[in-house]
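Re-running Methyltetrahydrofolate cobalamin methyltransferase to confirm reproducibility after the cluster update. Everything else is unchanged from the original entry.
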Amino acid sequence: MIIVGELINASRKAVGEAIKQEDHAFIQKLATDQTEAGATYIDVNAGIFVGKEGQYMEWLIKNIKEVTDLPCSVDSPDPKVIEQGLKINGDDVMINSISLEKERLDAILPLIAGTPYKIVALCMDDEKMPETQEERLKIADVLINKLIQNNVKLENIYVDPLVQPISTDKTFGMGFIDSVAAIMTNYPGIHTICGLSNISYGLPERKFLNRNFAVMAIAKGLDGLLIDPLDKKMMSSICAAETLVGRDDFNVKYLKAYRKKKLEV
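Result of re-run:
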């Protein structure tokens, strides 16, 4: 399972303050904690700092790389900031993200064409947020083919079908999950990823719903999540789900987590 640790995000009050104060220790502890908890990538987002986002993106990445070998996920709505982040990373990096929105597509494609970068591909275009499986798959198909035509390897594409709140439409949960299944079936070797907390927006016990939704999506093929890896119950649910769907040969990962007392039930 690809776990993108979401905690180094300037929109979180404590992180934003740490960035303003250039608190190296705070940021580096978040990086090491997520690494030890099982993250695969460290997401880096300085998006609240208009005018200084690129500067802070570089500062964050430099500090993270001092304490962990994990690759970063360069996360920004601004293609110029993404380009700045790429300049101080190696080839093993994730870009969050590209979409079918024309302005963003035109700006990001030249940065990734022919590179080994991993890319999160959002199922979004200039018209609206997709609401049905059919709308998601239509966008995904066009976006995947554009990326492949620009020499992006299929295995480097992480399609995000976009989670939307079940509180606003009861079909959004299965619409997302069925989209994951279809994408993974139609494009063998591709990845699917999401930040899943939107599913529970407006409802009580959100973490409980998020955990169960993650397990359902993993059962349909989802193999990437942007989450808080310090959430032990979420990580335990992911570990169990991967074992149950056959992604854990000889139950090695599950037994290892058990022995290290990492399973929280």
